[in-house]
């Protein structure tokens, strides 16, 4: 039985969901192509969930080559109504330093050239302009914040996620620009995922883990070693927050 109403899309550092008791692994071809990986159905704590590794497993798809449309379409086809997206990000404003959790409430899209809508093609019967005033579902956000706090995990409630194209990191001037735009965190995978979820009427929330201070926020350069260390120290909090969320 492959029904699960809640999906977790794991990003960098969460290619596999430790603690998931797998019941079924299923490939889901879609009209938009193949999802990043087979959908993994199983039990996490007391909840039935489906897990999808955004970058594939092993982690081989860079942010600009993730097939976001296929990923979201497959989840919807699988009966999912709610998506918890886990994203590694760089911190820009206060309380977003390495290993911190953030549940953003807003989003600015700086990406380009990605398959970003289901409303395209020659055979459209109508054009829909989906509302994205609040890109993240309020209740999902509240649930994530409460879940972290219930486990004693500090979490920043709200923040603007600036989504850049990648896969390179930003220049210091780009980060200053994002900061002037009001961004609190920067990542490469928040869009078009959030907009596609809205087009499919999926309730979507983001649990972001800061894995570095963004470019120019510290004296040195950003190293993969530093990112790896923050993932190592913060991913336990991500798992714990998700399991508290699912138990609530
Ligand atoms: N910039 C963009 N994306 C990121 C970063 C960053 O500094 N860290 C993790 N994902």
From TrEMBL:
Family: Belongs to the PNP/MTAP phosphorylase family. MTAP subfamily.
Domain Nucleoside phosphorylase: 5-245
SUPFAM superfamilies the UniProt entry points to: Purine and uridine phosphorylases
Protein species of origin: Hydrocarboniclastica marina
Matches recorded under NCBIfam families: MTAP (TIGR01694), PRK09136.1 (NF006599)
Pathway it works in: Purine metabolism; purine nucleoside salvage
CDD domains recorded: MTAP_SsMTAPII_like_MTIP (cd09010)
Protein name (Swiss-Prot/TrEMBL): Probable S-methyl-5'-thioinosine phosphorylase
Keywords: Glycosyltransferase, Purine salvage, Transferase
Note: Although this enzyme belongs to the family of MTA phosphorylases based on sequence homology, it has been shown that conserved amino acid substitutions in the substrate binding pocket convert the substrate specificity of this enzyme from 6-aminopurines to 6-oxopurines.
Purpose of the protein: Catalyzes the reversible phosphorylation of S-methyl-5'-thioinosine (MTI) to hypoxanthine and 5-methylthioribose-1-phosphate. Involved in the breakdown of S-methyl-5'-thioadenosine (MTA), a major by-product of polyamine biosynthesis. Catabolism of (MTA) occurs via deamination to MTI and phosphorolysis to hypoxanthine.
Complex formation: Homotrimer.
Site (Important for substrate specificity): 170, 224
Enzyme class, UniProt record, top EC level: transferase
Gene Ontology MF terms: S-methyl-5-thioadenosine phosphorylase activity
